[in-house]
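Hi U.,

Before I forget, here's the chain from the pilot set. I'm dumping it here mostly so it's searchable later in email.
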Amino acid sequence: MRTLRVLYRGPLASCNYDCPYCPFAKRRDPPEQLRADRAALERFTGWVRDFGEPVEVLFTPWGEGLTRSWYRAALVELSNLAHVGRVAIQTNLSARLDGWLGAADATKLAFWCTYHPGQTTIERFLTACTTLRRHGLRHSVGIVGLDEHHAAAVELREKLNSAVYLWVNAAEGHTYSAAEEAAWTAIDPLFGYSVRPHVSLGRACRTGEDVISVLGDGTVRRCHFVPEPLGNLYDGSWAARRAARTCPNVACDCHIGYVHLETLPLYDVFAGGILERIPHAFGPDRGPSAAGTTAAAAPDRVSGGSGGRLVEGGVRRVALQLGRFSGGRGR
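Structure:
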């Protein structure tokens, strides 16, 4: 039976950080919105509990979820369900970790962690990463590719355990020179996928069939970036429209969207770690030196057309690039 991947985003929009590039920085949700978010999440958790198919869940809150007890409870509960293959969350990793992680199934729980320079110290962030490793939890670590973040990214790569993938997100609205792109690619060999939008109009995409986006009220969309609803999760109306379809958008420039494009080799590159953004080479008990075993079935050349991206060498080239990180210093 095929696995359904669900990206869930409830009403939560508050965050404890004040990043200048984020519209939700230091935003406070009123009590009624927090109550609504909790109720929505608990309803969604109940749906997953009763769902009769293999499922994976990625929480993509606008705000910071781990500082809220109901997200921690949902992660623990879902990780312990037999039919849930993976449950992950996007987080700034600022919340308390010890005391609840031990109740989760470490083989299923994963984290997509973002380091925000200026909001916390690198030492504190790395301590949190060490806690995840101590619990045997899968996690990727990332940073926004702003000029002022480059030195911090270099330091992060140097001090982060070499078995942890460090990704770089291209900054919104920023154009990178060839030299800048090369500098960021030296940190994240997959940066090229983030730096330019992918042509997606009319291209095959797994969203809408194997991947769906769910809002707090149960509205189901094919992904976060296509507003047309497929139906509602709780009345079952979405199921009738669950089908393969091409993308209606001109381009896709966010990882949680373009990773599902069938014209890109990213399901091979991230095999086993699609939701938590962990390349196959960085899988469980695998250091990056194992990158050469990445699947090589994808086409050697994937062209996005005008305004798109040219990827030469497919997953074989990516595997060789990722293999450069075999000598990093652990922590």
